[in-house]
Each structure stands twice: as structure tokens, then as C-alpha cells.
Amino acid sequence: MSINLLKNLNFAEKINAVEAITEAGKVLLTSYRAHMYTNPATCSVVNSFVTEASKYRFDTGLNNILESVTSFIKENNISWKLASACESINANDSTYNYINKIGVKQVENLLEMNEADVISYIKAGVLKNIQYIPEVRAICKEVYKQNVTEAQAVNYTVTNPICYVLTEGKDSYFKVLNKTFKLSEGKVEEATTDNAEFARINQLLESFGREGNNVCYKYSNGRGDETKFVIAEKAIEFTRGSKISEKFEDKTKFIEYCNTLSKTMQMNEKLSFMQIANAVADIFEHVDDIYALDSVKVLNSNNGTLCAIIEGKDNVNLTVFHNINHGISSQNYDYVVEALNQVIKLTGIDLKAMYEARIDEDCKKADPQAQAIKEELEQNKAAQYDIRKKKIALLAEQYKNDPVKIALLNKIAKDLSILEKECPAITTTPVVEKQEPNPDDDCPCGSGKKYCECCGKKEE
Hints:
With 460 residues, the protein is an alpha+beta fold. The chain has helices at residues 4-9, 11-17, 23-38, 43-53, 60-75, 77-91, 98-110, 115-123, 134-150, 196-205, 251-262, 267-285, 336-347, 356-366, 368-398, 403-415, 455-459, and strands spanning 156-159, 162-164, 166-168, 171-176, 179-184, 187-190, 209-211, 214-220, 226-231, 236-240, 244-248, 290-292, 296-301, 306-311, 316-321, 328-333.
């Protein structure tokens, strides 16, 4: 089946454009190149490649091809599923499949269109006559459910990437989205370095993830057991399923253990396992120079766009990976708000709340006079609050025995937006009624006379 979808994928070109870096990856690429030399591309071949290549994500060369292919499939999700279903049905020579083969001809005509048109036509009911085909019915059901998804907000994640950082004098070199940058005297800019170790370790890190503040690599074998390597500051933590859990503080002992363990594995699994183990050991050796870049935020949106916002003291860089066809663009800005506005245009995502402190700093830098006026107004406001608090305190003292006036003062304090912790609630002092002493009691003034002969006599 020759359709535009497979032509646009250019699968043969993709697998010939990049070289694998591991022996297992090279064997896999060689087998698919040989097949494509004498056979046309089909959905089943591509799907098979995706399944097999997913086992070798540690091979960055092979992983680059995999990401390119899966990105295309994701962009053409419904079209690809229909094309795969058509291939499967046409390849089935069973007598009971004859009616299904006739039905899928309608689908083949639809697949000459782009993804948006395919979805629109399905929603319009163009495939309603072949709903008796189970595969087509399942895909149509998925399309009808997309009405809810289209109304949802854009989902995204923001992370700080892990990188091997090279320090030369006052300059620091790091890598983000496959580009090398230099931070020098407060400014970030694109750069190059001939340091082979810098390139090698960062290439290895592309296949690793994070677990907390540590570097991590994990995968599952065909039996469902998860193998995980966690590289901490002082040790490598290795777990395999529920049976193996080891910790190594020495790189050599870790490799020796892995070599021993690999002897129980089949050849392909052994090669793959040792490739990963050696990569883990290399990264552990350089762990003191590997950092989570706090000054870099990578935005990954569900529309496939990757944005890296890299902060220097005096400028900001925005690097964007659009898709496999448009590649990567990079631009420097004087102020972070300019980069954030560009992110909004590209993804519809507003990250300004994450950068409030930096935006305030940029405002001071952009217009010092306006910032001085703002600070003066803030000081005047604080002074006015102080005067009001003193007035309220004086009035509170004056009317401390009057509950009505005290309640009114509390209301005024709240209306003036004075914080409760700065101006605590005012309470009244209870009024004690004056009691008259008995005439024969000692006088309260302390004269020693009886009350009727002293103060009581005066009052009379």
C-alpha cells in the first residue's frame, strides 16, 4: 500500500542518516538497512523497529532515530493507526477476511489526506459504512472521544536538566537541548569546546533521567523485571526486580559485580546490560561535575515543543526545539519577560509567575528612576501606616473604658488594612466601681487615722 504517510516519514533516509554507538545498536540498524534496500517501507516494519529500538535507548545514535520516528507517528496518530490496520487486514488471506479487505479501500483513500482532514472526515461519518471492521470501529471511537480532549488546557512539565559542567577559569560550559552554552561574566551565550570528555559524558547523560537530586537509569526486560541504577554522590545503588539490591562505593567493584551477573544472561541482554553498566560507571566517576542546572528551566508541552530558558545575570537565552523538521532555534534577550512572551506565542503557556523575582530585578535595571519612585511610594505608604497606628494607639488609650468607641477603632484599623500582627486587636479595660470604706476602718491614704476622722471627713 503506497500512501503519502509513509512517503512523508522517509524511514529509509532516517535509519541511514545516523550511526549507532553500540554493537547491539549497529546490528539492529544493519538488519533494517538491509531490509529497506530491497523492500518498500511499511507500517508493520516501522512499528517493529520502534518496538526493538526502544530496548536500546541508552544508544544515543539509535535513540535519535527512534525519537524522530515516534514524533512523526505521534503527530499523525489516527492516520498511522488506520494505515497499520489496513496493512494488517490486507495481509490476512483468510476467506472470512474478504469483506474486510473490500471495506478498507475506503480507508486507503482517506489516508491520502493530512491528519487534521482525516479526523474531520471521520467525525463527519465517512467511515460509518465499515464499522463492522473491529479495528476501524475502535479507531473511530477514539476520534469521537477527542472532542473532550480538545477543550482541555495545555499540559506541560518544567524541569531543571542534568548536565556535566566544564569549568575553565571563570567560564562554565554546559549543554542544553543538544546545544553547548558558556556562562561568562554574568552573560550566557552559545559556545563550542573541544573537550572530548565534556561531549562524551553529556552524550551518555541524554539517556539518563532524575530521581530526586540523583542521576537515574531504569528499564524493564521482557519478563517484566525492572532494572534500576541510581547514581548518588558517594555510591551506585543497583536494584533488579525484587531479588537484587546492591550498593557500591567503588567503580571497579561495581563493574566486576555486573560482569559476574551478566554471565547468567543471554547474549543480546548481556551486551545491552554491560553497555548500560559501563555508562553508569563513567557517570559515577564524574559525578562531582554533574549538576541539576537551577538557572535552566526546560518546558516540555504536550504539543511537542521543547523550550529551554537559560538565565545569566545580565541576559536570558531562549532555545526552542520545534520538531524534527524545523530543528532548534536559539536567541538571547536582555530581559526575561521578552523570552517568556515568546514562550507564550509558541506554546500558549505563561510562566511569568515562576520568574516574579527576576522580572522585578529586570525592572530595576531597565528604569532605575521608575524603580526609585516606586520605592519612595512604598516608604510613604509605610510611614502613613505608622502614623495611623500611633493615632489609633492614642485613641485606644483615651477610650480604653468605652467598649463602643473601642469597637469603632477596631473597625477603622481593619478598614485601613493594618495587619493584625502589626496592630493587635484593641480590648477594653473593665471599669471597677468605687467602694466606700467603712467609717471605722483605717483610712486608705495611710495616715493611720480612721477613715471618718481623715479622708471621710474631708469628703463630707
